[in-house]
């Protein structure tokens, strides 16, 4: 019977059953640009104001598939073009966070001119201090040193399934779900190159910790505990089944969906389900086993 690798056992299961699992830039390159002929003010906070070319705005909107019920946050909203486009084209509510007070005023004027002032809000503030818990979509064009600081904040505040699209610079070490690379002539004015990269992320449910698993049809003589450690770039887990530590194989979380397999007693058991806060539930299949399972987080 395959056991979990020693590293996983040490990190995840050393104290299972006795104690809880120990859980383990800069600033915006302005995201927007206003009506033809309108000239936004320059940045005044030490970082460059670089509006995202309209063809890239179009691709970003397309990539995150904005719906009317979405709440879109643009971090480093510059002159507001992404926020205004999300409201005007897709009927979404949208919020722009921008440190430059002049750009905030400019964006509000543009929103009035485009008839979406009732659906958009522009806030003068630091993106690292913004409360993003209402967002279902987040967009950004920020320098790398700021992107890295946003990773723990976005993963902690955004709900499972929220979509993020970043222009050129990724949320390292978080691995994007999708990367698009294409060429836009207007980009030459920004950095002398035509190549553009968009990085797309789907926020996973937070599943790190210890869980007590209860299958509808028990496959073990004793209760099954599972332990998971989750990082931006990977996820690992193990289970105690009849006193034996076993790796959670093919463990993956996307939005609120979780999947993993456990090889036990000569058969592979496949768990597929959804995460809802402190509980998980789904379908269990395997040779001679079929039914549902539930799990609750153990303090």
Topology:
Layout: H1 6-13, H2 54-64, E1 71-75, H3 81-90, E2 93-98, H4 101-113, E3 120-124, E4 137-140, H5 144-157, E5 163-167, E6 178-183, H6 188-191, E7 195-202, E8 209-215, E9 224-231, E10 234-241, E11 244-247, E12 249-254, E13 257-264, E14 267-276, E15 279-286, E16 289-298
Parallel strand pairs: 1-2, 1-4, 2-3, 4-5
Antiparallel strand pairs: 5-7, 6-7, 8-9, 8-16, 9-10, 10-11, 12-13, 13-14, 14-15, 15-16
- Over all CA atoms, what is the radius of gyration? 23 Å
Q: What is the H/E string?
A: HHEHEHEEHEEHEEEEEEEEEE
User: What is the name of the CATH class of the largest domain?
Assistant: Alpha Beta
Low-confidence stretches: 15-37, 42-46
Give an overview of the whole structure.
The chain is an alpha+beta fold. The protein folds into 2 domains: 6-23 and 208-298, Lipocalin, CATH 2.40.128; 54-202, Vaccinia Virus protein VP39 (Rossmann fold), CATH 3.40.50.150. 20% of the residues lie in helices and 36% in strands. The protein is built from 6 helices and 16 strands. It has helices at residues 6-13, 54-64, 81-90, 101-113, 144-157, 188-191, and strands at residues 71-75, 93-98, 120-124, 137-140, 163-167, 178-183, 195-202, 209-215, 224-231, 234-241, 244-247, 249-254, 257-264, 267-276, 279-286, 289-298. The protein has a 9-stranded antiparallel β-sheet, covered by helices on one side. It has a 7-stranded mixed β-sheet with strand order 3-2-1-4-5-7-6, covered by helices on one side. A hairpin with a 2-residue loop joins β12 (249-254) and β13. It is elongated. Residues 15-37 and 42-46 have low confidence and may be disordered.
């Amino acid at each position: 019977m395959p056991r979990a690798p020693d590293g996983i056992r040490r990190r995840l299961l050393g104290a299972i059953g006795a104690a809880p699992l120990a859980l383990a830039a800069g600033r915006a390159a302005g995201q927007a640009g206003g009506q033809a002929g309108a000239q936004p003010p320059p940045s005044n906070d030490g970082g460059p104001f670089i509006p995202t070319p309209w063809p890239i705005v179009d691709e970003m909107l397309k990539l995150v598939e904005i719906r009317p019920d979405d709440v879109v946050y643009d971090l480093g909203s510059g002159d507001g073009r992404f926020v205004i486009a999300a409201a005007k084209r897709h009927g979404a509510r949208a919020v722009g966070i921008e440190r430059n007070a002049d750009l905030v005023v400019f964006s509000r004027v543009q929103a009035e001119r485009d008839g979406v002032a009732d659906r958009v809000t522009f806030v003068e503030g630091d993106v690292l201090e913004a409360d993003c818990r209402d967002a279902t979509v987040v967009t950004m064009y920020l320098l790398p040193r700021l992107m890295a600081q946003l990773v723990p904040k976005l993963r902690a505040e955004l709900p499972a399934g929220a979509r993020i699209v970043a222009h050129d610079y990724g949320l390292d070490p978080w691995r994007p779900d999708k990367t698009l690379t294409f060429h836009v002539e207007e980009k030459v004015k920004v950095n002398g190159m035509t190549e553009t990269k968009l990085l797309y992320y789907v926020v996973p449910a937070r599943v790190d910790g210890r869980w007590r698993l209860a299958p509808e049809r028990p496959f073990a003589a004793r209760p099954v505990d599972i332990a998971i450690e989750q990082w931006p770039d990977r996820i690992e887990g193990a289970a105690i089944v009849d006193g034996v530590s076993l790796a959670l194989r093919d463990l993956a979380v996307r939005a609120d969906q979780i999947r993993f397999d456990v090889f036990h007693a000569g058969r592979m058991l496949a768990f597929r389900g959804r995460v809802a806060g402190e509980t998980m539930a789904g379908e269990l299949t395997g040779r001679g086993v079929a039914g549902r399972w539930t799990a609750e987080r153990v303090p």
